[in-house]
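Technical annex, item 7. During the second reporting period the consortium partners agreed on a shared format for inverse folding records so that results from different sites could be compared directly. Each record opens with the tokenized structure and is followed by the designed sequence. A conforming record, contributed by the partner at site C, is shown below for reference.
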């Protein structure tokens, strides 16, 4: 069942990316912290990269890939792939936005991590080609070997510096 979910998510992501006629995109790195709290908090330090495509003047599709280093009670490390859709209130790559996300990836101790929720943030243009993306995710997460495992709240604020093309 786990393999089928991964396959479906990857195919949806690939299909979405191939049908998007992107006008421009932004690429960069990010860090912050991540909290997953099934019973006691598991803190993690995410280090990763992101790529955001401009679909039209207000919609964009972002994908982030990160490795989260566990620092909390359970010390779970996980590789995290996170596609998200964003609605920008002014224009893409500048100003406030809201959206939704789905995150998944392998975790320590032969387990798997999934998360689903809402995202919000603000992008600040610091020059013609650079912006700072301050974002936060709040959602529901699952960590385990199958559908038996830990369920809890997922909170992930990040800051990214990106180059806009």
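Designed sequence (site C submission):
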């Amino acid at each position: 069942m786990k393999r089928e979910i991964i396959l479906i998510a990857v195919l949806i992501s690939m299909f979405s990316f191939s049908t998007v006629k992107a006008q421009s995109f932004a690429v960069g790195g990010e860090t912050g912290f991540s909290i997953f709290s099934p019973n006691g908090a598991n803190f993690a330090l995410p280090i990763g990269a992101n790529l955001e495509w401009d679909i039209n003047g207000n919609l964009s599709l972002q994908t982030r890939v990160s490795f989260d280093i566990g620092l909390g009670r359970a010390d779970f490390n996980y590789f995290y792939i996170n596609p998200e859709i964003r609605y920008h209130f002014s224009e893409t790559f500048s100003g406030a936005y809201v959206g939704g996300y789905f995150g998944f990836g392998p975790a320590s101790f032969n387990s798997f991590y999934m998360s689903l929720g809402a995202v919000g943030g603000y992008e600040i243009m610091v020059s013609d080609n650079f912006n700072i993306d301050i974002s936060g995710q709040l959602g529901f997460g699952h960590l385990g070997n199958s559908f038996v495992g830990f369920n809890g709240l997922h909170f992930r604020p990040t800051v990214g510096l990106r180059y806009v093309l």
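The mean pLDDT is 84. The radius of gyration is 16 Å. All partners now use this format for quarterly exchanges.
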